[in-house]
Amino acid sequence: MVYSLGDKVTTKKKHPCGGDVWTIVRLGADVKLRCDRCGRVVMLTQEAFLRAVKPPRSS
After folding, report:
1. Domain boundaries, the chain
2. Exposure winner among 3, 11, 16, 59, fewest CB in 10 A?
3. pTM over 0.85, yes/no
């Protein structure tokens, strides 16, 4: 899956605020995500990001 800036992704585990939808703010060697519920920003390595995100649904 190819991700781009502004994409909404869902994580496997919920954030402590209760949200599990994040917006991609930065891409590169690291991925920066902003929680859509509380606005918290986290930075993950590419590998950690791919492990944490649910694969998109196929229709």
Report:
1. 8-52
2. 59
3. yes
